[in-house]
Amino acid sequence: MNNETARPTKMDEELDFRVRVAREKRERMRQRLLFAALDVFLVSERTKPPVIDDVILKAGVSRGTFYKYFDSLDEVLAELGQQMADEMIETYERIFAQLSDPAAKVVAGPLLSLTHAGMQPQKVAFTSKVDFVGYLSLSKRLGSIVTACLNEAKQSGAVHFASLDAATDYIIGATVEGSRRMMHNQLFDKEYLHELVLLIMRGFGMSNEQATQAINIAWEQLNSHSDNLPWWH
């Protein structure tokens, strides 16, 4: 019996190429619609609620094309929210995964979120239109990151808490409220950011000096990657 795998014919290769090109074309159009929708929502935030016609006009496509990819604007919002959540998690992993200081790893999450909110308040304000926090909280990747960071910091003696759930809610709650304040003020207030993160870490039993050191380590790491962050200014 011949077990050799049959080589693809020229016709098979051409078919595979056409399928791949069609798939890439569909994905480009989907992203085009998503980017157009985000632009429309950002511009319309202070004027009027956007409608599908606004999105297709911005994207330069027909209504029929829109409905090939999405059933409604709510579906567009949901996908944008998921993408933003994934982007935030990927940014954290890319920048802070190699940190060796356990406390700095805990600080890094709030520091990244608050800095983003202060430097790009208009886009971050858009997350209030979607269940951005919900997407983050349901993310298994984020859950594993937060759990690992908090447990590592606790085992090292850097932070103290009894309930992991309470510790997680404490960090997320303070970060969300701080982000809302910075978005409302439309201003990157580094002093406020530093004070809020300092208070978060003091709540875990760290001294002022220990918390400040952790913040400085995380900030230096974030700042060293600023050239690769499109929202940094």
TrEMBL record:
Residues 27-88 form the HTH tetR-type domain. Transmembrane segments: none annotated. Residues 51-70 bind DNA. Keywords: DNA-binding. GO terms for molecular function: DNA binding. InterPro entries: Homeodomain-like_sf, HTH-type_Tx_Regulator, HTH_TetR. The keyword DNA-binding applies. PANTHER family: ACREF/ENVCD OPERON REPRESSOR-RELATED, ACREF_ENVCD OPERON REPRESSOR-RELATED. This is Transcriptional regulator, TetR family.
